[in-house]
Design brief:
heterodimer, A: 91 residues, mainly alpha, globular, B: 396 residues, alpha+beta, four-stranded antiparallel β-sheet, three-stranded mixed β-sheet, 11 helices, 54% helix
Chain lengths: 91, 396
């Protein structure tokens, strides 16, 4: 986390999200609390998103965090990634 | 013999298969033409309304019996079996997701048995079933449906079509709707032929649609749900059952040929090599049948209890359905291949051989290519990486 601000994290995540949120138009802003499901996240592209997040941030999201709460919106995802990153740092 | 409606339908399918389908299969293959006599016989046996709910005059059938019938048809003519299975896949999709608003159409299918064609292929989108490029365009009188399709099975012979379209000009390619199109809706043209290695009777031709339909012809359920809940599961069960039937039929013909040959003082049946090869082929047949029965029974359970869409998104179930298709296609083809090895050049490789193995071999070569195994395996690999999580149940 030391080298990465929350803004950086949010920006990198937004880039990954844009690829999977099929109902989000190219120029359309992704509001922090917009429902990812309503923007087109489904079971298959959620898997793509998860695998990309794990590669981009170098973390493994444990099964117990692969729940609806995690994938609600960008804010909830940022929270989970930040927490996993900080755990990795203190480990 | 219990003599229930299910048994009677299976018996009727058996009679049609052994007489009409067997009579015309070789000619249909040779000429690469639609098996009109065979499909007419299915119609007469009331098999075209198999998935139409009984209150609309159909049979309201389950997947287990569907797979048994498809296999019986596949024994004699795989092209006819595949046309029937794909028709069933379309009718099930319409019955599951459009029941009330499409009641009259379902009644017509039960009564008159038009072939319902599947129009999901599209130039430029690859093989992805769940996307569509051409958009529905709203007009005063309904929706304009204008698009081309490179492959429509029995397209020139269909009396109804279910067509995938992008939900609108401003909608993404993943927002897809299924539209019921009739020949009288506008211009529907066959744009070319089907000169294929096998499955020649399916006459899977390129087509163009330029029609306008009333709003209620567009099914309200998003296509993704229709595909995951009905079209893909019913399709995979129907296809694999047809392939299994073709392989089983070929094995039966070979065994009859071997025994007749031996009785006439020809090839001895005591050869260990021959017996081992034969037994190995049976292992493959049993593997397909067992997986087919398991998937059909699991899906029947979900359909009986009217399980919610989430149940059909379960990762384990999707891995299983995909594996049914991958395993069924691979094993059925390998059975045909090994039978040719077993009986040799004269009885196996020549077109004039009465065993008809070279036709079955050519037909079954298509199995891995339809809804490509490569694509399914790539999807399954991805699903396996997250199988331990509850990820799949989260999304509608």
């Amino acid at each position: 986390m030391a080298d990465m601000t929350m803004d950086d994290l949010g920006e990198r995540l937004t880039r990954l999200l844009r690829k999977q949120l099929t109902f989000l138009a190219p120029g359309q802003e992704l509001a922090p609390e917009a429902s990812l499901r309503e923007l087109g996240l489904n079971s298959m592209n959620a898997i793509n998103l998860l695998l990309e997040i794990e590669e981009e941030f170098g973390v493994v999201v444990p099964d117990e965090l692969l729940v609806a709460d995690t994938f609600q919106n960008r804010v909830t995802l940022v929270g989970v990634i930040a927490s996993l990153l900080s755990q990795a740092e203190t480990a | 013999m219990t003599g229930g409606p299910r048994d009677r339908l299976i018996e009727a399918a058996g009679a049609v298969s052994e007489t009409v389908l067997r009579r015309w299969a070789a000619e249909v293959d040779r000429e690469g033409r639609f098996p009109r006599e065979s499909v007419a016989a299915l119609r007469d046996a009331r098999l075209m309304g198999y998935f139409v709910p009984d209150r609309f005059g159909g049979f309201g059938g389950d997947l287990t019996t569907f797979s048994r019938i498809a296999a019986i048809l596949g024994e004699s003519c795989l092209s006819t079996a595949m046309i029937w299975a794909m028709h069933g896949q379309q009718v099930a999709s319409l019955a599951d997701h459009g029941e009330e608003s499409h009641g009259e159409t379902l009644e017509e299918i039960a009564r008159e048995g038009p072939v319902v064609g599947s129009v999901t292929s599209e130039y430029g989108k690859g093989g992805d079933l769940l996307t569509a490029l051409a958009p529905l365009v709203a007009r005063e009188s309904g929706y304009h449906v204008r698009r081309a399709a490179p492959v429509v099975t029995a397209g020139g012979e269909a009396g109804l079509y279910l067509v995938t379209m992008r939900a609108g000009e401003d909608k993404p390619t993943s927002d897809v709707r299924l539209v019921c199109v009739r020949p009288g809706d506008g211009r529907i043209t066959v744009e070319g032929g089907w000169d294929a290695m096998g499955m020649r009777g399916t006459t899977s031709v390129p087509m163009k649609f330029d029609v306008t339909v009333a709003c209620e012809r567009v099914l309200a359920t998003p296509f993704r749900a229709i595909a995951l809940q009905s079209m893909i599961p019913v399709g995979h069960v129907g296809w694999v059952a047809s392939w299994f039937g073709a392989a089983r039929g070929a094995v039966r013909r070979v065994i009859r040929g071997l025994r007749e040959g031996a009785a006439k003082g020809g090839r001895k049946l005591g050869s260990e090599l021959l017996l081992e090869r034969l037994a190995g082929i049976r292992v493959s047949l049993d593997l397909i049948e067992s997986l087919l029965g398991r998937v059909a029974s699991e899906l029947d359970g979900l359909r009986r209890e009217r399980a919610p869409f989430a149940a059909y998104q379960d990762i384990r179930l999707n891995l299983l359905i995909n594996n049914l298709k991958v395993a069924g296609s691979t094993l059925a083809f390998s059975v045909a291949d090994r039978l040719i090895e077993l009986v040799g050049l004269n009885d196996g490789y020549l077109r004039r051989s009465e065993l008809g193995l070279e036709r079955t071999f050519r037909d079954l070569r298509s199995a891995a290519l339809m809804f490509s195994n490569d694509r399914l395996l790539a999807a399954n690999g991805k699903l396996m990486l997250v199988e331990s999580s509850g990820l799949s149940g989260l999304f509608g």
